[in-house]
Amino acid sequence: MLRKYLLASVVLVAVGVILGAVLVSSFNNGVTFGLAAGGGDVKLGGTTQIASQSTSAKALSQDFAMVAKAVTPSVVAINVTTTGKEKQKKMPQDFFHFFGPDFKAPEPEPSEGSGSGIILTADGYIATNNHVVEDADDGGIEVVLHDKVRFKAKLIGTDPSTDLAVIKIDAKDLTAAALGNSETVQVGEWVLAIGNPLGLTSTVTAGIISAIGRNINIIQDSYGIENFIQTDAAINPGNSGGALVNMNGEVIGINAAIATTNARYQGYGFAVPVNLLKTVAADIIKYGEVKRGYIGVQISAIDQTTASALGMSEAKGVLVQALVEDGAASAAGIKEGDVILSVDGKEVNKQNELQSYIATHHQGDQVTLKIFREGKTLEKKVTLRPKSGDQLAAKDKDEKKEDSALKEESPKSLSFADLGFTVRALSAQEKKAMNVETGVVVSEVKPFGEANKRGIGRGDVVLEADRKGVNAPGDLKKAIEGRKAGDSVLLRVRRSGDGSAAFIAVQIPR
Fold first, then answer.
1. Is 163 a catalytic residue?
2. Which is deepest, 260, 345, 428, 483, by most CB within 10 Å?
3. Among 97, 131, 361, 362, which one carries the catalytic annotation?
């Protein structure tokens, strides 16, 4: 439910998640989607009614009024009744929050909250946020139109990965919102937020787009797709599911969350891009669920230290940390340690850029990835597959060199003072516990040192250095010694906490 109670903590996550979605035939308002499994097309949205040509403050004011008048009838209020589901909710103490419905009390007796929605079709399909309706009682969703007419609504389907949902009322000749193209929005553009905050129906606020492509780690789903549009238009509990519109009167986002310390407006709101809504809503209307395709990779952003360790001249692309066993990427020949530079010609430099693009494709769709691998650039065609589970393959390609002479010369423990950590040989019991055959264990990490800053922890196992297997501390010394200040070394590390493997670059201090 969209509410003032805490639903998510602020956690900085360095690793991306698995990806997917539907094929879009057009991004025009009044969009028609060709769906993968046959049947008729799904047409969403109305037509653009506003063409802004403002040249003065007075003209801009008139544009605001025209947009508000045109779009407000397409935004509805949603009242949700919940019984006994607010018992565990707590008052918010962290920064990012989904907002509204604004439930009055946490007792298990029936409660009612309010949110917003956007009319997608003239015959009653309405988009809102998943957290607005996910806990609704059977028959507990009511829609109130701009003209105060009330309808009971049916839940058609939800998509927790994007925090979107579609509901349906039995109505005709409704005013469907014009759907814009969120790919073309720019920081600094004027926008209006239209919804029903704090019990105040048909409220319009103005602001600008203050950032795009935000990942605030609020969707509590292992496949969460976050690519929020950030705005300073005032939004509050009850706005959730409402429209963020441009000066042409086109919906470009679905208001979903706020950054706040008191569960009220403090300057930053976040909206789900409308292009993502188009793909999700079309599938839900057609199938009752999203037929999302997945690449099957775990990815992370690349900074200059990692780029240098990979042999790249600049920090770009996203690093493949792990593969889903029998996933699409694995089948296409993608390898751990590859860098994905672009997808279908579109550059990707953040995890959510790749996620949100793949989220516009179905199972069976093919995408082309441009890959950087060991100094070379190549292309891989990947056919997306359905989600097959959360388990990532532990395909550590340790080079099992039996260099007995080196092992005899290597001490059992070595300290790398410049990098701030110490390693030692693994015991047979530790190898079994960590499910490794080779590697060295990190026995000490200096606070605030390079290793600590890069995320290496005590108990982690270093498996590789510059893609060469590490069998003893001397192997790691051999990979690091002779490096100049400012040089980077790419390590592959098995985490002591969850057993996952990750590439971590460390830089020799200058």
1. yes
2. 260
3. 131
